[in-house]
Structure formats: C-alpha cells, structure tokens
Design a protein that fits this description.
This protein is of the alpha/beta class and 731 residues long. Strand 7, helix 17 and strand 8 form a beta-alpha-beta unit.
C-alpha cells in the first residue's frame, strides 16, 4: 500500500530568541495537572511538549517508607553533591573567552564581586590552566548499592495551614499550599508574605498571576520595578528556558524577554539576579569557521567576538561537570585491560567489530543508528562480558532494556537496565570504595534522551580508565530536560564516531529511514504494514482512532488493543491525549473512575520524575494510594501525588513514547496540529511501530512540508565550547 503519512508536533523546545515560545497542544503534561493551581494556563515551560514533566520509566522499588521517585531523587542529590565538590576543587575561575567591555563586563564584574566580596571591577575572564587530572585510584572493588539518602519529609500540617491562609488572603488557590510549604521550607508563610513573588517558584504559576497575588498582599507598596519582582521574573524566565531545553540564554534574549514582562530596566534586573547568586553569567568566544587561531603572544590582538550567556547554577554546573568528565574519559583511557579488549575485539564480527575496536582504544565512543543498529551495542556488551570485562548497558525505558536484553541473549541477566535505575542504585553493578560504578564499560542506548544533569551524573560515576559508549538515533526527538548532549558531542567531534550501516527492515523501516533524510516517500506495504486514514476534523479523528484501536487493527492485523499505542501531538485540543484517552476508556474499559478518575484495568502513563514516563495499568486503590503495575513491577502512588504524576495512557505524546516500541501504533494528526509538525516529531512518532502503522491524517500537505523543511528547534548550550578547551580533537 502506498503511504504518504503526515504528522504534527513540535520537534523540540523554544529557541533562545524566544524562551517563551508559543504554546502548542503538546505542551500540557502531567505537571500542568499537578500545578493545577492558578488559573492554569500552560506555561512556556510546556514548550518542551509537556514531556518535561511527564516522561519516564519506573524502575525498581523504593526503599521502605518512601516512593520510588523519592529514592531516585535522593540518589541523584548525592551525585549532584559529588559534582559540586569536584567543581570546588578547581583552582581557576570558570573557563571563558578573551576581552569584554560595556554591559557584558559589568555583568562579569558582578559575578566577581559576589565571589570575592569586593566591589565590581572591569576585568575580563582569564583562561585558567586545565585542572590536573586525578590519578586513577586502585579501588577496593565490592559491589554495593548507591548510598541511600533520607527522603525529604512532607511539610507539617500546621505549616501547610499557615501557608494556606496567606494564599487565601492573596487570592491564590489554596491547593498550592503543600507545594509552597515544601518549596520555601520552614517559615514559608512569612517568606511568602515578605516576598509574594516567591510564588513563581511553584510550577505553573505565571508572572501575571504572581503580580496579582503581590498586589493583594502589598497594595501600593509593589510595582513593576520592585527588586523582588525583577529577580523572581528573571529566574522564572531562566527556568522556562530550561524546561524548553536550554541550559543558558543569550543575554539579549533574556533582556528582551524581561522587557516583555514589564521590567523597566532589564539590564539592571539581570545584574541584580547575578549579584544575589541566583544566576551565573558566562562569555564564550564565537568561533568563526575558517578563522585562524589567535596568536597568544600578541597581547594587542583584535578582540574576538563573544556571546554573553546567563543560566541557572544547577544546569551550568552540570554542563561543566559533564564536559570535565568527558574530557577525563577521552584523555585517560586505561591500558590495564588491553589483553581482554583484544580478546573482545577478536570475538566480534560484522558491524559490531568496528565498534568493539574503537572502544578498545578510546575512553569515549559515539555510535549512531536506528532500531536495527541496536544489535551492535548488544554484540559489544556480549563480547566485553565474555572477555571478562565488567560491562553494563542502560536504556531510556524499561521496554528498551527488554528489547536490548533479547538481542544480547544468554548472559543478559544483570547486564542491562535503565538510566534511572542505574542512577538510583536500583539496578547495576553497585559502587566501588571510591563511589564510582564498578565498571570497565558503560553502554548508554537512547543517548539523545540524556539531559545534562543525567549525563553528568553518569559520567561522574565512571572511574578513570573506564570506557563509555553513547549510542542512539540522532534523528529522534531530543531530551525532555535541558541540553542536547548527544547532538553536541556529535558536532564537537571529540571522539570516534561509528555510524551503523544496518538499515531497519520492511516497509516501516523504509518509510522511517526516508523521513530521517527529509523525504516522505510512497512505500509499498502489501501486508498492510502502513495504512492512511483521511479525516476532515478532530471529531472524526477521535472516532476513527477508537475504531482502529478497538476493531480494525485487532481484526485485520491481529494486534490486540492493549498492544497498540496512540500517539498525538499534544495533551490539549479536540484530539489531544485527554480527549482520546476519554474516548478510548469509554470504549475499552468503561467505569465511573472510582479511584480518583481511574478504574482497575485502565492503561496509564506514570511519571515518577520530570522527563520520565512509563506505561502501566491500574490494579486497585486503597488507603496507601493508587496501585499500579509498571514495567512488570508493582508501584504505589500516594493519594496526594496521583493527580500530579498519573494520566490515562492509551494515548501518549511522542516525547512520552520515545524509547518504547509497540506492535502497532496509531498516529493521530488533527488539523489544528499542523503548525507543530517537524521532521524529528514525525520520525519519532512513526518509528514507534514494530509491525503496523495507521496514520489518522487530517493535516493535508503540512506533513510533507514538515518532513522536508522543519528541523529541530535550536537549543542554547555550552557543551561544545567547554569541550573545545579541554579535548584537543574537539572542534
């Protein structure tokens, strides 16, 4: 059958020029329900297709007395503290370019003033000497889980009640009280009364809503130039940019956004925010293609162009730590296991042999390819373990781990897990006496889904001399969290890159491969592998989707409804996940929603942490909360968290579905989603189908245009610049 499918969704978050890019249907996520709070307009944070708060996988069980999500976040906090301690050991200031003047110099001086306690002086950042590499320790190897941290206690009922009174007085939703009490800590009610714009720290609250709350509490004592307001709005804009995928914002973009928010003196607002330590400023030299390298001996050389960037500390530290860790791996590959690596290379064949040889000689290797190419990292894992090397592989989702284990075959038990499971300590080999993962080789599949914080924690967990392989399909959607780690590394060319030549088979493989290079071809599908279902409007799209899932696909293809996923561009709208899930529940599992809107047997999408989604089903509910089965493991979601992190899951967005595969996929393209179409979205959505793809098509020519012309939206990151100063081959 000929196929000319068409799709719609945003390829990725907003651009640096517009940190609050227009909202799209995809932008609603599980988090907007949890924010649910103020007149709940979706925020620019949801520009990242809402997946910034709705993605994920629930792997492993939590320690007694706390949830799996809390255990994971606690473990990640420990890793983040290790990163910060490592950064504190560096002698010099943050890497930077050459000379600055004017506003940029003032901003940099403000940072110096905060660090030294002196008045700002107009100076340029100096290029520090690279930090000395730490020698590889001789660890005492003993597998053990990551150290457990105490989960943060829920706010006391009295504290919540005092915050609720302040919210009521200011006209804000009282349902925000637990979140405010948790975010602001002890004395939250006093802090909120003294600085009402602290309300912007709660997800989903917008500046205009915080302004109204502040006016109700402070009256004429507040105005658009209130220093509390300008600081809070500046931080809020940087947070929205992070949710849209950026690790920093260019200074002109930030000041323009502040002006749009009614801040009278945007430059002063940025300086004040930096001086208060709530943001960091950087200046990076702009590399012009073909330009000669600067002559170090010429002190009077012409100033090189730079860009000034502002970002939140947590992402700046993570990105710098990631660059340090990657440079450490690149610059210090271990020779101790040379004989075993030679044995592993000798045992590999076909496309995997090239990958094994590259890993044998280098600390960091990138591997690219589509679904069929996963066989090559699987072969690498098997060969390394057969040679006596300590090797482990992780994927973005539990489904991805299951598929990888099937490729590895015998010996896969204990060798495959998920990124979240490894970081939380629920999966993996344990840690050595130095706190590093007890590994010679870590393989990370689905690498495009790595955000800077997860990537930094993984790299910091590897000891000197360990090998790291990042493998993935560069054509899929980027991570839900900030950064574009895999794309930046590919562009930096700081290490060997192995491109698989193994194509995905069949009509579906042919269709998706063509989309990856910008072509929407007609493909012969004699076995009904691809079916196009034209529709006129969103109502018809919902009707035909239910018909396909419940009747047509099971009857004609033999795939039952529970093995079919529906993918649509957004949560909102007449054919978004909410509307589709409502219609699919009514047909496939009707019920009164006795468990907070859910019934036993409902398919759900569970989000244990921002950026992670795992499909599952409802088992039952009791006083402990909602009982789910996710990735084959029982999960209990406390009653107060159900609204925040559980959605019905017959229909997903592309970011929620990335990393998973289903026997059949129904991709819904309502006409109102035409403006959100992009090549990465189409590629990702269509690529979730293993045997059959139905396209409910209502966007006419928007799809072929998107496939040919609309690429991923740019993200502002610093990883390439940071690597360029540390890895000689980077460029």
């Amino acid at each position: 059958m000929s196929t000319e499918p068409e799709t719609t969704e945003d390829a990725g978050p907003g651009t640096p020029e517009n940190p609050e890019s227009p909202e799209t249907p995809e932008q609603d996520t599980a988090a907007d329900d949890s924010r649910g709070t103020t007149a709940a307009e979706t925020t620019a944070a949801e520009t990242a297709e809402g997946e910034t708060t709705a993605g994920g996988t629930a792997e492993g069980e939590a320690a007694p007395g706390r949830s799996e999500a809390e255990a994971e976040l606690a473990a990640q906090q420990i890793e983040r503290e290790r990163i910060e301690r490592r950064k504190a050991e560096k002698k010099g200031p943050i890497e930077s370019g050459t000379k600055l003047s004017g506003k940029a110099a003032d901003l940099l001086a403000a940072v110096r003033a905060v660090e030294s306690g002196e008045k700002p002086v107009a100076t340029a950042f100096a290029e520090p000497e690279p930090a000395p590499r730490r020698p590889a320790p001789e660890p005492v190897r003993r597998p053990q889980p990551a150290p457990a941290a105490t989960a943060p206690a829920a706010p006391a009922a009295e504290a919540v009640e005092t915050v609720r009174r302040v919210l009521r007085e200011g006209g804000a939703p009282e349902a925000l009280a637990p979140q405010v009490a948790t975010a602001l800590g002890e004395g939250a009610d006093t802090a909120l009364r003294e600085d009402p714009w602290q309300l912007l720290r709660i997800g989903g609250v917008r500046p205009e809503q915080a302004d109204g709350f502040a006016r109700a509490l402070l009256g004429a004592a507040c105005g658009p130039d209130d220093e509390r307001r300008v600081r809070a709005v500046t931080v809020w804009l940087l947070e929205q940019a992070a949710l849209a995928g950026h690790t920093t914002l260019e200074l002109p973009a930030l000041t323009a956004a502040l002006a749009q928010r009614g801040v009278p003196d945007a430059d002063a607002a940025v300086q004040d925010t930096i001086a208060e330590g709530e943001a960091l400023v950087f200046q990076d030299a702009l590399e012009e293609p073909g330009a000669p390298a600067p002559q170090e001996e010429d002190d009077e050389e012409e100033e090189r162009p730079v860009r000034v960037l502002v970002g939140l500390e947590r992402y700046a530290l993570a990105e710098e730590s990631l660059a340090d860790g990657l440079a450490r791996l690149v610059n210090s590959p271990s020779e101790e296991a040379a004989e075993r690596w030679e044995a592993a290379a000798a045992g590999a064949a076909g496309g995997a042999a090239e990958l094994v040889r590259a890993v044998a000689g280098h600390g960091l290797v990138l591997h690219t390819g589509a679904e069929a190419a996963r066989a090559e990292p699987a072969a690498l894992l098997g060969a390394a373990r057969a040679a006596g090397l300590r090797a482990f592989a992780v994927c973005h989702t539990a489904d991805g781990s299951r598929r990888l284990a099937a490729l590895v075959g015998a010996g896969a038990e204990g060798a495959v897990g998920t990124v979240a499971g490894l970081l939380s300590g629920a999966e993996g080999p344990g840690r050595d006496a130095d706190g590093a993962l007890d590994l010679d080789l870590l393989i990370v599949l689905d690498a495009p889904q790595l955000d800077v914080e997860s990537a930094a924690m993984l790299v910091e967990s590897l000891s000197d001399g360990a090998r790291l392989v990042l493998s993935g399909d560069p054509a899929v959607l980027w991570s839900a969290g900030p950064g574009r780690v895999f794309a930046d590394l590919l562009a930096a060319r700081a290490c060997p890159q192995i491109a698989s030549r193994t194509p995905d088979p069949g009509p579906l493989g042919e269709l998706v491969s063509a989309i990856g290079v910008g072509e929407l071809n007609q493909v012969e599908a004699p076995g009904k592998e691809i079916v196009i279902v034209p529709v006129r409007d969103a109502g018809e799209a919902v009707h035909r989707t239910v018909q396909l899932v419940a009747d047509s696909v099971p009857r004609a293809i033999g795939v039952p409804a529970e093995q079919t996923v529906v993918i649509t561009p957004g949560h909102g709208g007449a054919a978004g996940t909410r509307a589709l899930n409502s219609a699919l529940k009514e047909r496939l599992n009707p019920g009164p929603g006795r468990f907070g809107g859910f019934d036993a047997g409902d398919r759900i999408a569970y989000s244990p942490a921002p950026g992670r989604t795992v499909p599952g089903r409802v088992v039952n509910a009791d006083a402990d909360g909602l009982h789910l089965e996710c990735a084959g493991a029982p999960v209990v979601v406390p009653r107060e968290r159900v609204e925040q992190c559980v959605r019905h899951g017959w229909a997903l967005t592309a970011h929620q579905a990335v990393g998973g595969r289903w026997p059949a996929a129904v991709v819904v393209l309502p006409g109102d989603a035409a403006q959100t179409l992009s090549r990465p979205w189409v590629y990702t959505a269509f690529g979730r189908a293993e045997r059959h793809l139905s396209v409910v098509h209502g966007v006419e020519q928007a799809l072929p245009k998107a496939v040919a012309e609309v690429l991923a939206k740019p993200r502002t990151t610093r990883l390439q610049t940071l690597l360029r100063t540390q890895v000689p081959s980077a460029g």
